[in-house]
Amino acid sequence: MTTPELIHQYKTTCNKLKKIQRVLIKRFGPSLSDVTEEFGTLANSFNEAFQPDYAALCYIGQSKCEKLIGNEMGEVEALLRAARSFRSAHAKQERVRAENISSEYHEGAFRCYTQALSRLPDKSVIGAAIIRELKEINPSVELTSDFSSPCHRIWDLEQSAEDSLRARDYVAAFEKLSEIYDDVTERKCEALYREVMDRIEVSRLLLLCLLQLPPSVRYDHKFLERYSSITDGASPAEHGQLPEDLVFLLQSLVVSCQTKDIESLISVRDELCQRPELTSSQQTLLKEVISKYSK
What we know:
Blueprint: H1 3-22, H2 32-48, H3 52-69, H4 72-96, H5 104-118, H6 125-137, H7 150-166, H8 170-187, H9 194-211, H10 221-225, H11 236-239, H12 244-259, H13 262-272, H14 280-294
């Protein structure tokens, strides 16, 4: 079926939904389950035709049908599909045209997300996940969830730390990463979050090198002390599960910063830049450290 034919079928299905909404005695109107299925089939067809904007409209129609049926979770799922399709339409727009990009698709996604949230209880895990997705298109939105989970809290704090790094608020970023460290160690569940702990270990170390906080102010001064001397072998108890050769490079970085040995610092930088463990944010922090000490 061509795109014009799909659009015609979409309009026909929308008219069926309008008839259902108008008819007082439902048995005299079109079948609600058939219309719901038609919207779902059309959405799949529009997706296959690379028309996510129309797919989003079909999912919205499907959500209205689910609401009439009284299926709240079906309505929420359809609204989420609509929101994600609108985001796909925005991404397609960005790929095709670099200038004059409309915000209408993100606005459509925002409306679908907020409508889905209104159908869920505050402490819902799905609600927390929706807020997470919503903040990807609108980071400044003041929505929070009462759902409490270590992994959701860690994700939120890491995202908040990333926002602080982009804003060059390094103290705030360090505090948020330290909060993750404290949460995990207090719960004694380091083994469950080993990858997270290793990641924030490197980020916190780079931030301390950059901030140069005095011992009286510096959070957990023993953390930096563990990297203040170069050893041949790294103790797993001291450095988590970081590879020994990475620990050695980080120790070299700290010592080079403390002695202001620019030549050694650049040499360590060149080696660290090759490490696959470093994230893009950590690579940026490393450049900031070199820039600071090279002045």
